[in-house]
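A quick aside before the break. I want you to see a complete sequence-to-structure record at least once, exactly as it would be stored in a machine-readable document. Don't worry about memorizing anything.
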Amino acid sequence: MTDSWATFGADLHLEPVGGTGLRSGLMEALREAVRTGRLAPGTRLPSSRALAADLGIARNTVADAYAELVAEGWLTARQGSGTRVAQRSAPRRADPAAAPARPPRTGAGYDLKPGTPDLSGFPRTAWLKAARKALTAAPDEVFGYGDPQGRAELRTVLAEYLARARGVYADPERIVICAGFAHGVALLGRVLRRRKVREVAVESYGLDLHTDLLTDAGLRTPCLPLDEHGSRTGDLAGLRGAGAVLLTPAHQFPTGVPLHPDRRAAAVDWARSTGGLILEDDYDGEFRYDRQPVGALQGLDPERVVYLGTASKSLAPGLRLGWMVLPRHLVGEVMAAKGMADRVSGSPDQLTLAEFIASGAYDRHVRSMRLRYRRRRDQLVEALAERAPGVEVTGIAAGLHAVLELPAGAERSVIQAAAFQGLALEGLSRYRHPDAPATRDALVIGYGSPSESAWAGALDALCRVLP
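That is the input. The structure line, written in C-alpha cells, reads:
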C-alpha cells in the first residue's frame, strides 16, 4: 500500500500495518485518521473506484473495508450521498478541577425567544413564481453591480405600498435599500457622527444590538423612561446633547405598547424645534389584531423622521432586505456612507420582492400570517388563563410576542427551569438599558418562531415552568 494518501486534500500518511492484509491495513488507517481528527465528522470519502485507483488495489478491497467500517459505526453510507465519516461523540476526559456540567436538557428543544417569525410559513411557491417572472423579464444589467441606492423597480413599488399600508410619505427617490434594520442603523450612525451629533436617545427597553451599533459609531445612548403609554418623549427636551432619538412607536419592543398620540406629537415637536431626527423602527407594524392600524410616525413630518422597515418579520430575515425612507436632505449623505462597495442586497432578490409586492402576493401573505399569529396569541392567552391564572399577559394587541408578568424575583428561576426542560426563553431584563432601573420581572415570549407542528409542544412546555 502506498505510504501517503492525498485523495482527501490532505497528506494523511496511511502507514501499512505489518502482518495484515490490504483490507485490514486500510481499515486501521481509516480508523486512526478518524480518531485523530484528520478526517472530520461529515467528511465525504472518495468512491471505492476512485480510492482503489489511487491506492493501486482492487475495488472490492476498498468496498469491503468501507462496508465493515459502516457496520462498526465509523462511517455512514447513504444512496446519493456517498460514504462519509460518521458523527461521533468525543470521549470525555475526567477533570476534577473542571466546572460542574450543566444539567442535561430534556424535552423536544423549543425556542420561544422573540424576534423571529415562523420560518416554515415562508411562501416558497409564491416567491418562486415571483422570482421566475421577475428574472425572465430582467435586463442583463440586473446581474451587474447595480445601483447602491437599490433597484428603482423595488423603490417604486415600496413607495406605493408604504403610503397605502403604513401612511408613509415615500417618494422613490427618498428610499434607500439596505440589508435590514441593523444595517440601516449602522449607516445612520455614521451619518449622525459626521454631522457632529454626540448622543442618540434610545428607549429604556430595546435591543442592545441597536444600541451597540450606535455606540460603535461613536455616539452616546442616553435612555428615555418607558411606561404604559410608551416612551416619555416629553423628556427629550431635558437631554441637551441628544441630536436624534430611536423609537418603536407602532409596537414598542419588547413591552408591546404603542406610543400615545400626545407623545408622538411631542417627539415631532422636539425634532422640529431642535433640528433633531427621529429614527422610526416600524417593528411589527403590519401585524395587529385587536386595534386599528397605527400609522407610521413619519407621516407627521417626513423631513424630521427617518422611517426604517424590513421584510424580516413579514417574510424572513434570511432575505436581508430592508429599506429607509429618508428626509430629502439626508439621501446624499446616506448614499455617501453606504458607498459604492456597500451592496449587500442582491438585485435579483430586490426584483423578486418588487414583483411579489406588485402582484398582491405580499398582501395575501401578510393577511394569512396575521391570522396564524392571532390564533397562536389567542391559544397562548387561553392556555395561561387555564394553567397559570396568576400570570398577567400584556402587549398582545399586535406583533409576534407577548410579555408575561412574573412575581418579583421569579424571572431568573423560571428561565433556568425552562432551560432544564429544553425550552429557550428570555426575560424582560435582557432588553433593559444599563441606565434604566429594574422595575419588573417578566418574560418576553415570541409566539411567532415555532413551526406549526411545534407550537402546541412549545406552549405546553411554557405552561409547565410558569409559577
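Two observations worth writing down. The longest helix spans residues 361-387. DSSP finds 13 helices and 17 strands in the chain. We'll return to this after the break.
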